[in-house]
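[job 4471] stage=fold_predict status=RUNNING
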Amino acid sequence: MRSYTLEDLVVRLEELIDAENDTHYSAGEKRKALASAIADTWGKMIHAGLGDRFVKLAEFTTVPDQLDYDLEDEDVIEDLDFLKVYQLYVDEGNGTRRPLERISPAEVTCFKAPVSAVPMKLYYIPCAPTFLTEEGEFDDDLTFDGINGWEEHALMGAAVTLKLKKEDDPSYFYRRKKELEEDMVFQASQDASQPARVVRRRRSQRAMAWYPFHGQVSAYGLRGRYLELYYSYPWVP
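[job 4471] inference complete, writing structure tokens
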């Protein structure tokens, strides 16, 4: 773990741009610049393949004949921080989890809402930390995990923002930020033992393997802020 509090990052940012006593920047501006830069770093880390590190689990149960589930509802995502689906499973009991595949809107003709209550496990990548309390105030004790020193990328981004505000030259910080992005992509894989495998599936074989469960949930879709759950009828191998 390489977690740093917002207060830690503010101190490092001030040292970086020599702004410990600079009245050009308010305390709020420094924190806003860091929060924005961390959101950018978060996106770069996920794009580089580091999203596995942040995966969280949400568990909920389907409602019979309900198709849509609001990903901004705490009954589905308790922490209200959903960004991307990592993997969605049906909990079949006895430790068995059945993976679901996403379908496109053009494929929903032979699907309808699940007809029974089914326990679901949603592994998801959360959005970047905002460092804000429910009252909208910055909490200096909230943290960001830079994993392998990638908090430096966020610091460089925040430095660029503040330097531009003061009309100073941000070129050094911008160049360093780009160098870190290249390094992030190069070092992204978290499994150094072997390359990822391509999983080849045939639809009929996949469906037959889960034939005893075909009346529950067969697939999912995403539409805006809603997760759509489907089951297929009639079942065709």
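[job 4471] summary: The chain has five helices and eleven strands.
[job 4471] exit 0
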